[in-house]
Amino acid sequence: MSRRRIAAVLTALVLGSLTPVVLPAAGASAASCSSYPNWVAGKSYVTGNIVRYTDGKAYIAEHDNPGYDPVISTWFWEPYACDGSGTPVGNFVVSEAQFNQMFPSRNSFYSYSGLTAALSAYPGFANTGSDTTKKQEAAAFLANVSHETGGLVYIVEQNTANYPTYCDWSQSYGCPAGQAAYYGRGPIQLSWNFNYKAAGDALGIDLLNNPWLVQNDSAVAWKTALWYWNTQTGPGSMTPHNAMVNGAGFGQTIRSINGSIECDGKNPAQVQSRVDAYTRFTSILGTSTGANLYC
Secretion signal: which residues (predicted)? Predict the structure, then answer.
């Protein structure tokens, strides 16, 4: 397992999990959004309540809250599968059966429902371009997180001796959760206080003060991985998302995630591991790999 400064790749046994968001089963008939009560600011809601927001879409409460705004307080609310006509939304190119086939030994923390709930944070992910491009991007993302987590088995960094090293005190906000609080967590092993701050700001979640959300909430964990995938170039020259949708190829996603350690012949075995996973996953999705697999 390789390591990097940004979103360090480190592994560990899962410390705990939270009940995932309940969404309608694939193929089920979702209720019309108009059938749910309108959201009211300041009204108390409990986990499982479903409301219709001012945008006409429905949201389900992941946690009890005193009427937080569903599109701002994304830890408390998640989009619920419906639209104005009752048609399920948020269709993902990877089915739950395919996801389970890709990760037969995954930890239950990495739930399919957690992943699909997180997709709303970056609607362009695996939803841009042709059907082939969409499937290739989904396969590329899942292949990289598979490599990072041992097949979606590991959630947090195991070597606790490393924990204090991920605090950059030069940042003006410091490390309010504690010097040893910003160790690697989630599908792309988010680490360092500045990455928790940046990811949290982007997602509307206070991860700087509560980094433990990434190891306790499946949807939050997946969102941090999608944040990196869609917005960070890492040691590369483009985001992994742009690499896939603009035809640069899978190899450039490796460069953006861990290229400074693996690419240009530095660690060909690690690169091959990622490519092998990508090849398996594109086969499961019934699509081609495209060109430029290596970096």
Answer: 1-25
Cα angle 44, 47, 53; round to 5: 65
Residue positions annotated with a catalytic role: 148
Closest by Cα among 153, 193, 152, 158 to 176 = 193
Instruction: Encode pLDDT of 87-128 as tens digits.
Output: 333 579 999 999 999 999 999 999 998 999 899 889 899 999
> Domain check: are 144 and 77 in the same one?
no
Q: Look at the chain and report how many structural domains it folds into.
A: 2
Which CA distances in Å does 198 have to 1, 56, 207?
25, 29, 9
Looking up tokens 């949708």 gives 245
- Kindly give the residue spans of alpha helices, DSSP state H, lying in the chain: 96-102, 112-118, 131-149, 193-203, 213-216, 218-231, 240-245, 250-262, 268-284
Asked, for residue 295, whether it belongs to a domain, the answer is: no
Q: Report yes or no: 118 and 48 within 8 Å, Cβ to Cβ.
A: no
Instruction: For residue 35, give the amino acid letter.
Output: S
Q: The whole model's pTM is what?
A: 0.71
Q: Give the start-end residues of each E strand in 48-104.
A: 50-52, 58-61, 77-79
Phi-psi map region of 264: left, alpha, beta (phi>0 left; psi -120 to 50 alpha): left
pLDDT digits (tens, 9 = 90+) for 260-285: 999 999 999 999 999 999 999 999 99
φ/ψ of 78, rounded to 5, equals -135, 150
Domain CATH code at residue 20 = 1.10.530.10
